[in-house]
Protein kinase domain-containing protein (Nyssa sinensis), 516 residues
Amino acid sequence: MLQARPNGFHRTQHLLRVHLRRSGLLLRPKVRRLQPPLLGLPKLFEAKRIYYSYNNHLTDLTVGDTQVCAVQANSGVAICWRFQSPTQAAWKFLTITSGGGFSCGILKNNSRVMCWGGSEIEAEIQRQFGDFPMLSLIAGESHACGVTKTGTLICKGSNNGGQLDVPSHFPFQFSGLALGANHSCAIQRKNGLVICWGGGSERSEFEFESIVAGLDFTCGLTTKNLSVICWGPGWSNGVSLGTVVPFPMVIPGPCVQASCSICGVYPNSDSLCAGSGSICRPCEVELPIPALLPPRPPAAAPSQLISSPSKARNRIFLAFGIVGSVGVLAGICTIVYCLWCGVCGFLHEKTRASRQPRIIRANVDSATGPDSDQESTSIKAVGTVGYIDPEYYVLNILTVKSDVYGLGVVLLELLTGKRAVFKDEKSGPTGVVEYAVPQISAGGLNRVLDRRMEPPTINEAEAVELVAYTAIRCLKLEGKERPTINDIVANLERALYLCEDSPGSISSNTLSIASQ
């Protein structure tokens, strides 16, 4: 596996290719100093053996400014090269990380953070983490971030560039982390997008499998085609939108011969491994139901704190509440329908046909007369006018996407300020779908927005546009063309971040919602 961790005080790029073989062999290449940006493939480095053991393999390799450290798999003891190793023999680590002149790790026995290196910053980082039980830990030049066992992302250490100011988030919202000199970045678990904070922070419009950071730039492995993209003020003369690095395709994990039946394999895994194995997907932990954390108070003047919040932002928060409620209700209804109708695989044989209810009209017409034993019942769809799925109402086809149509109607109500069915002075009763969808599709979103709303800012306008096009996808006539609840939540999250933060790089032009 290729691991690049460019940390250094002299704006150099340390390119490190390390192979942890089954024999426990660790190779340290000579470090080549290059002036950024790196736009071409470097030449192969001369390797030097620094560790060799058949019995005690190494794992969790980490690279800092001047040090290389790893954990002995059997004992959990951390050892370092060009750097002092931990002096406490009782420290057994789950994972370790290295920064500028310090290294830290998570202890096996209590999940606490312990640091070493002899510098002032490592002692301060350890003190600030205190008794937080941690699941993960990543170090930057002078700070470290990690996810606690409750799912909260916290950062400790130096805050000279705002790199400790983690944005408000849900529990377990972030997965992969990358830290530089004065910025921090994280991958959002639901949609793979990267959000950064601190000096020179940018938000990426690409989905990533993993990310790493240098002093003042960030690189990531894209999900779409496994290419490497880098961005930031220190990359390519400050190009912030990202440039593709001409590396060959980088695989997202090791090729293994063992079965990946538990969590599945990556698409095209066979071709990526050239027929020599498969790449297993990492298993996602079962997450608790998230609760929205209170927003961080802004550092503003007292007079500015009195002003009312943006109405557009409030409506997007309301949309989140509605999506959550609809999702819970849809799940309950699905379970009840499954149990009553006997369509669940494990109950199908146990449920009698006579106990399967049908929603019918009050009058039951005989198909062949009163003396016939066979009766024909005309099924009538039941639902709220204006919200009912046309596919269900006309064709009596009820799917898991039926509730998504009603959610699309609710999103249009939030945008237009009109009810699902309202009275138009010119044409009488009109549905909000017939009123808004044609105009939005023709580029006339501004003509249907609620006139009582304040004019949106640039970011809010982009967020409103994203919500509008999400609503249109929810209102597709065929259920299979509508997005899932997870897709809807992911796009509403994008809209919310656009409202809360600086000018974003996510546009409706990059909107991609799965149809299955």
